[in-house]
TrEMBL record:
This is Non-homologous end-joining DNA ligase. Keywords: Ligase. It comes from Streptomyces humicola. GO terms for molecular function: DNA ligase (ATP) activity. The gene is ligD. Residues 41-295 form the DNA ligase D polymerase domain. Gene3D superfamilies: DNA primase, PRIM domain. It is an enzyme of class 6 (ligase).
Amino acid sequence: MRTAQGEQQDRQPQRQAVEIDGHRLVLTHLDRLLFPATGHTKAHLLHYYAQIAAVMVVHTAGRPASFVRAPEGPEGQSWVAKNPPPGTPEWITVAEVPGREGPARHVVVDSPAAVVAMANLGAFEMHVPQWTTEGGPELHDRLVLDLDPGDGVDIVACCRVAHRLRQLLADDGLVAYPVVSGGKGLHLYVPLCPAPSADVTGYAKALATRLRAERPDQVVVTMVRAARTGRVLIDWSQNSSAKTTAAPYTLRIRERRPSVAAPLTWDEVDSCTDPREPQFSPEQVVERVSDHGDLLAGLADPARACRLRFTSQGGRDER
């Protein structure tokens, strides 16, 4: 039986010129089948990004991006691209980012046109750091905890750990927003009034270590794979200025089916008992945003974040 995507594929052109935000783009290889299991073509992925871009750029604008390029889908060659890929339009915003070997040029995904343009180049996964080009890498305006299940556990275990982390963060006056990673795990984001990167990383490590001491049978904080069996890794190191995390609403190109780093409600986290539940297709994510809006809107609200003065010991409510 042919899928709806498969039926649409027969009618898709290979190339199409479009105009987004006043920028003309020629979308190419639209009929390329990227996910045979579901029938998703490149056209379907670009359509998703065109629909979600206005919400997504709220969380990527001002941040130097890196990409996972996979022009032929998960079964083809893929690689990480940090510099602007060949074919990047000249109107795309590019920022100079400090590095060990000198400044490096990074794309800043700051408009719907930029989202679609980069995806058109096969840069389907978009990753950003927890700092902006305005503040620089030494000043972070977000904290992230990456919950990664080890062998023998799944995202249900991540949800249980996330529930407790939410409580601990709330005790410190900090608000957490859950995002299913699009892979096996869960991301927790915390908006901050810009704070020194060393303070943010130190706090994240201390918080993870604290929960490891509280629940040694459920949590690890080491990257050693053998130690992670049956436990959830709380990866606090994602707060390093040199690291990036899959951006909210980005597609993930790792499995046989396209998935999305999609926001969850805390009710969904707390009620999770089936590892298949908190996983969404691109079409489902578009529908969720249409029904509920951006569940991460508070993450990008600087006024709300700056009511909490962050220190290396956590947040303090100053309202």
